[in-house]
């Protein structure tokens, strides 16, 4: 086996990015299932049932917060910035202005994200498209400037949380958005609380759920403002953009020390920070939403734990992918990454059917252990389907629609 690190071909880079995107989609799925969101499971709620294993589930929730929650959307954010840089490079290489196409791509990403958020309000596509437009004017800044800005943004939530503790008025965007969502719920469905919503959703039909997701959009963005998700995501965008523009992955042999440094520092700092993050979420989650001192500690742990861990994961994947064995095993996931948007939407559709009352109604009745089993089975199924699909088609269905809209004409679908 050859474990040496050598210059990487463009095709290998594409396969690696698809692989990493596939693993990111899997991590996001497990986080959305076992930590909350898609499955309606709540670690803090007292629930009983055949598919709940309280002692095991509590431990798994803790471990998932440590090792999964936040890390994989961070990797996905990194890949977004990375891909953004490659699109610009490819346009320049073809002696054409890439910006109009990128703008159209973002515009239709925005549209498709809006459609998806009506299916599941935990959507990230709409949010990423919005931030993508902010990335465009920054493309001419130097790599050093963008890296400094990126890492500064990752630490900014600490300052923002401390500021909101002193001046709660800074939380006005969240308050306003929550109020709009609440007014819609009360007027349309007579829902007055989160607990009432969880009971309502067990009985609601598909049309009512779709309508309720209109208010969910306001709750979603109110939540994103509160947890300072904008600097968290945009910081990773900038770091990913620099990785792509500097051809970091293509020149791994020259960047070997940087990768080992990132892995070592990421795990060294991230492991204790993520332990405390899981500890504060398990024991003091209410304090975080009430702007208490424990909430500040949780924010610090998040800033020092999530992004460093995500970068360490990426570095580890980079090194493993350079071995023949690692590449062979990990490439199995690449088809899922090539169809990431389609597979992401599939997660929402399948989980809505399984967990909402209009479907099978298992929401809140399944704990992290069985949710993990479910997530693994779903992901393996997606690996098989994606692999077969791409033997016959050039793109996933969602990717094909997106690409066709971007270029203003039907793209070749079948191989």
How does this model look, in words?
With 415 residues, the chain is mainly alpha-helical. The chain has one domain (10-407). The protein has helices at 10-35, 54-67, 71-93, 99-117, 125-135, 143-166, 172-189, 194-200, 206-226, 229-245, 256-289, 293-321, 324-330, 334-338, 340-355, 368-392, 397-407. The longest helix is centred in the middle third of the chain and has 34 residues, at 256-289. The two termini are 34 Å apart. Mean pLDDT is 92; it is low at 1-8.
Could you name the key traits of this structure?
415 residues, 74% helix, globular, 17 helices, disordered N terminus
Strand content: under 5%
Give the overall silhouette: globular
Number of strands: 0
Give me the number of helical elements. Answer: 17
Distance between the termini: 34 Å
Radius of gyration equals: 21 Å
What is the average per-residue confidence, as pLDDT, rounded to a whole number? 92
Q: Indicate the structural class.
A: mainly alpha
Write the layout of secondary structure elements.
Layout: H1 10-35, H2 54-67, H3 71-93, H4 99-117, H5 125-135, H6 143-166, H7 172-189, H8 194-200, H9 206-226, H10 229-245, H11 256-289, H12 293-321, H13 324-330, H14 334-338, H15 340-355, H16 368-392, H17 397-407
Helix pairs in contact: 1-2, 1-3, 1-15, 1-16, 2-11, 3-10, 3-12, 4-5, 4-17, 5-10, 6-10, 6-12, 7-9, 11-12
């Amino acid at each position: 086996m050859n474990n040496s690190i050598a210059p990487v071909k463009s095709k290998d880079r594409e396969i690696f990015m698809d692989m990493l995107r596939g693993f990111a989609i899997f991590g996001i799925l497990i986080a959305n299932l076992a930590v909350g969101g898609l499955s309606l499971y709540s670690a803090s709620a007292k629930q009983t049932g055949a598919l709940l294993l309280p002692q095991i589930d509590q431990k798994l929730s803790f471990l998932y917060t440590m090792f999964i929650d936040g890390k994989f959307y961070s990797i996905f954010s990194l890949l977004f910035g990375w891909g953004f840089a490659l699109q610009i490079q490819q346009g320049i290489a073809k002696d054409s202005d890439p910006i109009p196409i990128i703008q159209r791509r973002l515009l239709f990403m925005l549209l498709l994200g809006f459609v998806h958020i009506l299916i599941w309000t935990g959507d990230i596509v709409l949010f990423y498209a919005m931030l993508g437009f902010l990335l465009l004017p920054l493309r001419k800044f130097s790599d050093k400037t963008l890296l400094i800005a990126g890492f500064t943004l990752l630490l900014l939530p600490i300052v923002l949380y401390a500021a909101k503790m002193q001046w709660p008025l800074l939380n006005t965007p969240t308050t306003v958005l929550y109020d709009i969502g609440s007014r819609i719920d009360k007027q349309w469905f007579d829902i007055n609380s989160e607990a009432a919503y969880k009971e309502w959703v067990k009985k609601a039909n598909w049309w009512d759920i779709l309508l309720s997701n209109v208010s969910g959009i306001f709750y979603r963005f109110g939540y994103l403002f509160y947890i300072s998700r904008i600097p968290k995501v945009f910081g990773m965008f900038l770091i990913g953009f620099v990785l792509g523009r500097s051809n970091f992955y293509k020149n791994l042999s020259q960047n070997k020390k940087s990768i080992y440094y990132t892995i070592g520092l990421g795990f060294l700092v991230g492991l204790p920070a993520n332990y405390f993050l899981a500890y504060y979420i398990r024991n003091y989650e209410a304090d975080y939403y009430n702007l208490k001192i424990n909430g500040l500690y949780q924010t610090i742990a998040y800033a020092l734990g999530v992004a460093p861990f995500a970068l360490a994961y990426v570095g580890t994947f980079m090194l493993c992918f350079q071995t023949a064995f690692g590449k062979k095993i990990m490439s199995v996931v690449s088809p899922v990454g090539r169809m990431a948007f389609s597979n992401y939407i599939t997660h929402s559709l399948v989980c809505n059917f399984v967990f909402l009352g209009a479907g099978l109604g298992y929401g809140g009745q399944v704990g992290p252990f069985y949710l993990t089993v479910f997530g693994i089975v779903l992901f393996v199924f997606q690996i098989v389907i994606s692999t077969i699909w791409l033997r016959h088609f050039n793109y996933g269905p969602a990717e094909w629609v997106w690409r066709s809209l971007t270029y203003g004409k039907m793209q070749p679908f079948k191989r």
